[in-house]
Structure formats: structure tokens, C-alpha cells
Amino acid sequence: MTLRFLLGFFAILINSFASAQMTAGDPLASHIDHAVKPGDDFFLYANGRWFKDHPIPASEQSNGLWQLIQDTINAQVRDVCESSALQGNARGSNRQKIGDFFFTGMDSASLNSRGLADLKHDLERIDAVTDLKGLMEMGSYIHAVAASPFFGFGVGQDDRISSKNAVFIFQGGLSLPDRNYYFDTDARAVKVREKFVEHLAKMFEIIDYDKDRAARSAGNLMKLETSIAKSCRKREDTRDPLKNYNKMPFSQLREKTPNIDWQTFMDGSGIHNLDTVIVGQPEFLAALNSTLASTPLDDWKDYLKYHLVRGLSRFLDDKTYLESFNFYSKTLRGVQEPKPRWKRVVEQTDGSLGELIGQVYVAEYLPKGTKEKLLEIGNSIRSVFAERIKGLDWMSEATKQKALKKLASIIMKVGYPDKWKDLSALQIGRSSFVENGRNANRWGFDYMIAKYGRPVDRTEWSMQPQHYDAYYNPSNNEIVVPGCNILVPGYERTLADDALLYSIIGGSTFGHEITHGFDDQGCKYNAEGNLENWWEPSDSAKFFSKTRSVVKQFSGYVAVDTLHINGELTQGENIADIGGIMMGYEAFKRTSQFRDRQLIAGLSPEQRYFLGYALAWMVNERPEATANQVKSNEHSPPKFRVIGPVTDMPEFFEAFGIKEGDPMWRSAADRVKIW
Ligand SMILES: [Zn+2]
């Protein structure tokens, strides 16, 4: 679970197939590196062969399962885009919008001859700003079409009244991925800051400043963002939803931060009759209020220009796109070269028009039986979890009753939505890519704004069926698992065996997500999705005494160079991983594949389960990407999401004959069991 707004993955395999000839094509057996012992490094044992055969492409920050699945989905979405671009489609139809959007992205001659011409008007409007009111007018416009300057802003479910939509304002407005990037003193961080200032200067030259002015503006922008970053809470300090919930009358917000012209911002955004707002971090806005007055207006105008151009750079000419790529992908994530144009444009079309592409994807590509299988696995995890709650040694009886009620009321949205969003108001044409990009952003923004004052639609999905990811939303008490999560390499048209599906989907998806509804975050939201702590105080004390062992386990891992995993920051996700892998295993034990002791590709059901879990996190990443993740993400890097949780299960050691003295060994006393 991430705090919303804040932070900005074919039961055909039956006995008769379980023969040695399956080994070659089996995604588990064929990935094993037999030069590595499972007791030395299970992650490399399980995935090492694949890593050796598949180096990280220069255009990627990592290579692994996600890329394999994404390649399959990309090829399908590419078909949808290309066929749509060739057809004579009725004006306003889904296919017309998809086709024209894709066409303008592929038309590199036109993109490059236009340069920033389509942003000229926006940049002139910024130049014409003469006061703080003007800044907020442009601020609201840029929020709608390009980026999020000044602060984070959105309309979403009120944490305390989950049936109501509310306006949220929270810390943000930075160009680097996290506030720590502005202050860390390690060599990597110092280099990133140097390169960032160089990047800013180049972007200002692209905007049409001479060299001197560009260099001056870059230095000033770095100074300005550093002062904004200073007032941001550290990421680990934003995990508590109660501390991020500061509801106040709109009038009070205006009084306390008079230099921020909120009325102009809300008018520009289309929010009318605003009575209350929920502020994430009041001290951040107080600091912004001062910085607005104390910083020259010209510096703020540069700030807005940069955020506008950078926010839209993926829709712009090659020069602008590459400058943004060089910093944000190369320097920050170690990616060596941009993806081929078709791939980028397919991803951009999907990113902007995913709702339209999803409808075609479900009709033409999603394997039959997906929805039913996902529901089977989800419900099995639910019943395993119910048994485990009843047996917990740290949760009181009174709390267990509330937990069971909350568990029973979890909404499981799987596969694809029952109804699609209406994008008829969105205009997409063949003249300008950035115009299409701006229009799509604007549509999304207006869709969000229109929720204000309307009851929450609990049937809404925030992810598309072709998006390989999943989420738990505490305000709806729901788990959402898009259809493509059923895909496993080697099983693109049918369903994989249950060991794979129960580890990847049961363990790392449903099992992981479901624990979030009941952990130190989930206890703050009740069965109806309202912010209300339903744990007894004694539960909380006992839970936190257990979490110390997780913090200790993961803080002990060195992720890259001398950089340790931040056990404190990642504990919530690590606890979910450990609970998830255990519940996926319990659910798998109830399947016929497990009970019948089937060997597939020479592997026992237990071995397939744990190897499947390692496949779920088969990611080989560049050191830059690992470093970036450790600093800015509450999830542990992929390798540790495998070698951490497996060692908390005695069944894992038994399955691979791992004994005391082996590097992977963890003694019974050091094993974590929370769920
Ligand atoms: Zn999670």
C-alpha cells in the first residue's frame, strides 16, 4: 500500500505433461543456474541461468520477469496501435483516438521540426506573470496538463469518510525523486546533484536562454528546490496516515498561507464551493508560503517553465526528450540508451489512453478463464488468512473478531472492470503529439476534479487490465488485480501450473496485498474504509515488538556498494512479503497439484512453489537503479524480496536441503512470523 497521492502480474498442465521433456521449456527448470547452490544464494540459483543468457539491454535499467511479460503485452498493444492508425476510423471512436495518438508520436519529422513551438503560448503566459496570483494561475494550469509544481494536489476519498471525495494538498513540487537527493553526502548523491544542475542549464538553453542566463537560472532553480526539499518530511515519516490527515476549513488554509493564492489555484483547477481541505504536511505549506515571498518572481517563473517542459518532454522533439532521458534515465537509473521509438510511443499511448486500449486487450488478448482463476486464488488466500488470524499469538480476541469482519468484507476486483470510463470528451487529432498529450492529461485531471462533491464510485478501477501490477486501497477495503497478472513466461495462451500461480499471484500479489489491510497501516482503516484504529492498544505493542525482528533482518542486507537496505522504511512491505509467501504456500497446499505430489520438469510441488516465488521477483538491475530504489522506495530491491522472506520458512530449507552453516540458513529463533 502506498499513501495515495503521496508517493506519487490455463489449468491445462495435468499429470500427463509432467515428464522430463518439459524441462527445456519449463520457466523454472530452465532458469536454474546449477553452478550456484540454493543454500548459498537462492536468488541466483533460481534465476542465474536466465540472467546469464539475458544481459540488461542498454535501453533498460533492469531485465527480468517484468520485461518478459511487458514484451508480450507491448507486442499486443503495438498491434492495437498500429492497426488503429491504419484504419479509417469514425471520428470520436476509441480506435480513432488510439490510432491518431500513436500516429503523432511516430511522426518524428513533424515532432522535430516543431520543437517547442506548441509550448510557445504556455511559455509566454509564464513570462507575462507579474505577481503571486499569476504564479498560481499558471500553477493550476501546469497541474492540469503537465506536472505538479509547488505542492501535491488531488481529489480522492476522504480517509475518515470513505463515501465522500475530498481535496488533498500535500508536500511535493520537487524535480528529484526524493527530498534526500538534495542533502545526501555520499559520492553518488553529490554526482547526481552536479549532473542535475548541468541538465537544468541545458533545458533552459532548449527553452531559448543564452548560455549565461541558462547557467544562472539552473543555479537558482537548484537553490529554490533545495529550500523546498528542506521542509519536506522524510519518506519514512510519511507512513502514518493520521499524521498526514490535517483537515481544515479552506478559509483557515488561506489565512495561514496568504502568499499562496489558493482561491486562484482552485478556480483555475475547476474546484468550486470548497469548504474544507485535507492537508498532508502543514509545516511544508508554511515554509512554501515564506519561500514564495522571499524568492524573486523570475526564479519562480523559471521553475514553472522547467516543470512544464520536463513534464511534457516525452511528447516533444528528440532534443528535449533526450536531454530529459540523459538525466532522469541515464544518470539516475543507469539506462544507457532510449528505447526504440515504437516502444516509447506504444508505452506513451498506453499511458495516456490505457482505458481505451484495455477494452481491446480484454476482448482480443486476455486468456480465457483469467477472471475465474484469479477469483479462486484470491478466495483461497482469504480463507487461509482467516485461519491464520484465529491462530495469531499477538492479536487479542476482540481485535481478531474485527479483523475477521474486515477480511470477509474485502472487495476483490480481478481481471477487468465491469464498466469503462467515458472518454468521449477527449479530443485527439493528427496534428501535434504534445497537444494530444496535454489533452489526455487534461482529461484525466478534469475527471479527477469532477469527483469533488460527488459520492465515491466504489466500482472504479485505478489500473488497466494490461498493466502488470496490483494494489490494495484501504479506503475501499479492496484488492485490485488486473487480468495480465495471470501471465507467466512460457504460458502466454494457457494457465500455468498451480505452483506458479499460487506463488506469483497467491503469494506475492494477493497474499502480500491482503496483509496490508491488517498491518500497522491497515489497522487504521476499518471494514468500511474509514480512518479509525480498530486495534486494541495491546495489539499494537505486541505487533511492534514483532516488527523489530523484520527491521533487523532487512537492515542487515547490503544492497549495493556499502548501502544497506533501510529496514525501517521497508518494514511494511517486507512484513507483507513474508506474510504473502506463507499464505500463498498454505493455499497451494490445498490444490490437487500439491496433494497428488506431481513432479513437473523434475521439480517437486514445494520446489516449484519457492522457485515460482523467485520467478515473481526475477529482476537483474543496474547498481544505479538499486541505489535509487533503496533511497526512494519503501519496497526492498527484488533480490531481497526473495532471499529475505524464503528464509523465514522452514519448508524452504526442507525443499532444497539447506542446513545450518549454509549462507542462506536462518535459525528458528531468528525467523520472522507475524501473520
Ligand atoms: Zn505492498
Report on this model:
By secondary structure, the protein is α+β, with helices and mostly antiparallel strands. It is 52% helix and 7% strand. The chain is built from 25 helices and eleven strands. The strands form four sheets. Strands 2-3-5-4 form a four-stranded mixed sheet. Strands 6-8-7 form a three-stranded mixed sheet, covered by helices on one side. The protein has a two-stranded antiparallel sheet with strand order 1-11. It is globular and about 75 Å long. The model is unreliable at 1-22 (pLDDT under 50). Zinc ion binds next to helix 18 and helix 20.
Give the SSE map.
Elements: H1 42-53, E1 62-64, H2 65-86, H3 94-106, H4 108-114, H5 120-127, H6 132-145, E2 152-157, E3 165-170, H7 187-207, H8 211-230, E4 246-249, H9 250-256, H10 262-269, E5 276-279, H11 282-294, H12 297-312, H13 318-333, H14 341-364, H15 370-390, H16 397-408, E6 411-415, H17 433-449, E7 471-473, E8 478-482, H18 498-516, H19 537-555, E9 558-560, E10 563-564, H20 567-589, H21 592-595, H22 605-616, E11 619-621, H23 623-632, H24 638-646, H25 650-656
Parallel strand pairs: 3-5, 6-8
Antiparallel strand pairs: 1-11, 2-3, 4-5, 7-8, 9-10
Helix pairs in contact: 2-3, 2-14, 3-14, 6-10, 6-12, 7-8, 7-12, 7-13, 8-12, 15-16, 15-18, 15-20, 18-20, 18-22, 19-20, 20-24
Bound molecules: zinc ion.
